[in-house]
Write a structure and sequence with these properties.
The N and C termini lie far apart (56 Å). The protein is globular. Strand 14, helix 24 and strand 15 form a beta-alpha-beta unit. The longest helix is centred in the N-terminal third of the chain and has 35 residues. The chain has 27 helices and 16 strands. Helix 10 packs across helix 23 and helix 19 packs parallel to helix 27. It is an alpha/beta fold. Helix content is 49%, strand content 10%. The strands form four sheets. A six-stranded parallel β-sheet has the order 6-5-4-7-8-9. The protein has a six-stranded parallel β-sheet with strand order 13-12-11-14-15-16, with helices on both faces.
């Protein structure tokens, strides 16, 4: 490639990136003949306009069919389906797929706990007996006078039964406020189990079955509630039981956490069953000694994406980067191994790794990637498998191929590990743990309200920059922000997840709360499955009283400014379906149907209490959330804000 072409590609890619660390590495990646996600985004332009509007259908072999949004061409498919059916059916299928993917994470966690309880997975143990007993009581599992393993076995069995349940409802639905539950019962969207609503929803989207747009979308809601109040909530609770309830701790973020003289192992994906054990293996004396014998000073383990959040909030392991930095981590030339499991893994990784000495290791039985080495996890032998993987990284250290190591000189402090439980202690203290100070701060007008800003980063938006801009605008207006997933990792890089950020960026009321309690203005709540922690926090706010009798009355809002995956659609559905106004940065693929768009952005609020909005500008989106929070404050007759 000529130098001119390299420069052109590099500049086009950098125009879509806000993070200086990433911008610098893009230059180096181009020099190494390495293709990045931003270059691939440019090469697929223009993207299919029919698909973006939700006006193409591929579910049967009479098509593919598409509807002309300008009215000149066909207005129905071969079977007679309209634009409304196209858009609703496509969205419903995506919600079901997203719910299935996230919920399967929960099934995997429950199965690991069962193996541990039966003595077949000795790498795992119950690290939070208190939470084990609390969750067991919710499932009506006997706890008095019983061992941790006996309780865990019965709880795991009960949770696995929740997946296949045909009658009744998933156990954690009982956590929702009574009014929310009544709405779901009236709509017939209470999930019996986790799997059944997903299967039912997919069946309804088959050709020749359900074609009523609103009825289809109620299927999307039900499947997504099965995730939010079922599969994902199970994943969060079991992770806390097996690996310990996170507690706020200080760590480092961004690609500068890699070390030139260490063996660098990057863990990427979502399910913490193997990543937790790899951390243990990498810290074992025999592996450290082997690393030194190969000429390394030590072993650095760092995370990418939601695996990063999991091992950050429990172990203080540094974060290498977010979703869009997974290729750039390899571009440093310093990574011996990237170990992946499921979700958000770019198929490009083995090709990118081939530009350097890096090996990509896939580990999950559900996912293989051409060009990667597959070392499958078996929980029964997890520690030995983890040591085998770490050994592969150590033995690859001498194979660095002579390219310059390009580790950015940038790492940012981050405080991570807040949960719906430990916030009690921060707000009320050890002996008076309560949400009362949070509710009182909202009632008094020190805090305007609370916003959840979550989701992926996306090259078609600002590659993470929308998250940073939105969150800065929210905290400037005295909105406490809670975050999960790559949204949290982007704001961590911007320095927003540390207490010092309150004085620099927050409004005066939020500053006072942060200083009094000792928290950042932006709270890290974990990985993307841990959005369920946000639901539980909302339930606790309702239970505490004074700011509404159900979630839809709370002065809260949600956003996914750079959403990317079908999981995000499922998350959006269960958040909206739980009564929360939610802004997506780019529209769902329904804009070709005015009726479906109106239903999602207007009519749904009168049905479930929440609705969607679509706004690409992060500042305008933040103010949509602020306006909504103000509307809820007015409806509750709360005091005016102390500092306007």
């Amino acid at each position: 490639m000529t130098e001119t072409k390299k420069e052109t590609k590099s500049e086009a890619a950098k125009d879509r990136v806000w993070c200086e660390v990433s911008r610098d590495l893009i230059d180096y990646a181009c020099d190494a003949e390495m293709e990045t996600v931003w270059e691939r985004y440019e090469t697929v332009q223009p993207q299919c306009g029919f698909g973006q509007l939700g006006l193409c259908c591929t579910i049967c072999n009479m098509g593919p069919c598409r509807i002309d949004p300008f009215g000149a061409g066909s207005q129905v498919g071969v079977c007679g389906a309209t634009a409304d059916t196209f858009a609703a059916r496509n969205l419903t299928r995506k919600a079901a797929a997203g719910s299935a993917c996230h919920s399967d994470h929960g099934r995997h966690m429950a199965h690991a706990m069962l193996l541990m309880a039966e003595g077949e997975a000795e790498a795992y143990t119950v690290r939070d007996p208190r939470k084990l007993r609390a969750v067991a009581r919710e499932y009506e599992v006997a706890v008095d006078g019983r061992s941790d393993r006996d309780i865990a076995r019965d709880l795991a069995e009960a949770m696995l039964e929740d997946f296949g349940r045909q009658h009744g409802h998933t156990r954690f639905v009982d956590r929702a406020p009574a009014r929310q539950q009544e709405i779901w019962r009236r709509l017939r969207t209470v999930p019996e189990g986790v799997d059944m609503p997903i299967v039912e929803t997919l069946a309804r989207t088959h050709t020749g079955v359900d074609t009523d747009p609103e009825h289809l979308l109620m299927g999307a809601l039900k499947a997504s509630l099965a995730d939010g109040w079922g599969g994902s909530m199970i994943a969060t609770e079991v992770s806390d039981i097996l690996f310990g309830l996170p507690m706020p701790m200080r760590a480092k973020s961004n690609l500068g956490v890699l070390r030139e003289k260490d063996v660098n192992i990057v863990l990427h994906g979502h399910v913490p069953i193997l990543s937790e054990v790899i951390v243990d293996a990498a810290q074992s004396p025999d592996m450290l000694e082997l690393a030194r014998s190969m000429g390394a000073e030590g072993i650095t383990v760092a995370g990418i994406c939601c695996t990063a959040n999991e091992i950050l909030m429990r172990r203080g392991i540094p974060v290498a980067g977010n979703f869009l930095q997974q290729e750039l981590a390899l571009a440093t030339g310093a990574v011996e191994l990237m170990v992946v499991d499921v979700q958000c893994i770019m198929p490009s990784l083995p090709r990118v790794a081939a530009c350097f000495h890096t090996k990509v290791i896939s580990t999950d039985p559900r996912a293989k990637f051409p060009g990667a080495i597959h070392v499958e996890l078996d929980e029964r032998d997890a520690l030995n498998i983890a040591k085998r993987i770490v050994r592969m990284g150590i033995e690859n250290f001498p194979n660095r191929n002579g390219r310059e190591i390009r580790i950015p000189d940038d790492e940012t402090d981050v405080i991570a590990g807040f949960t719906a439980e430990n916030v009690f202690y921060f707000l009320g203290g050890k002996y008076r743990s309560t949400y009362r100070p949070l509710n009182d701060a909202i009632i008094a007008g020190r805090l305007r309200g609370v916003a959840g800003v979550v989701g992926c980063d996306n090259p078609k938006n600002a590659s993470g920059g929308c998250h940073v801009a939105m969150v800065k605008e929210l905290i400037k207006n005295d909105v406490l922000v809670v975050q999960t997933g790559c949204s949290a990792l982007n704001c961590a890089k911007a320095g927003l997840l540390q207490p010092e950020a309150a004085a620099k960026y927050a409004g005066k009321g939020l500053q006072e709360v942060c200083e009094a309690v000792g928290i950042p203005p932006v709270l890290h709540l974990g990985s993307c499955v841990d959005n369920t922690r946000i639901l539980i926090a909302c339930c606790n706010m309702v239970k505490e009283g004074g700011i509404g009798d159900d979630i839809s009355e709370l002065p809260v809002a949600g956003a996914a400014p750079e959403w990317m995956s079908e999981k995000a659609i499922a998350i959006g559905w269960y958040v909206v379906g739980s009564g929360i106004f939610t802004v997506f940065g780019t529209p769902l693929n329904v804009m070709g149907s005015p009726n479906v768009t109106k239903f999602l952005t207007e009519d749904l609020e009168g049905i479930v209490g929440g609705k969607w909005a679509f706004e690409p500008d992060p500042i305008k989106a933040a103010h949509l959330m602020i306006e909504h929070i103000n509307k809820k404050r007015d409806a509750l007759h709360l005091r005016p804000m102390m500092y306007q």
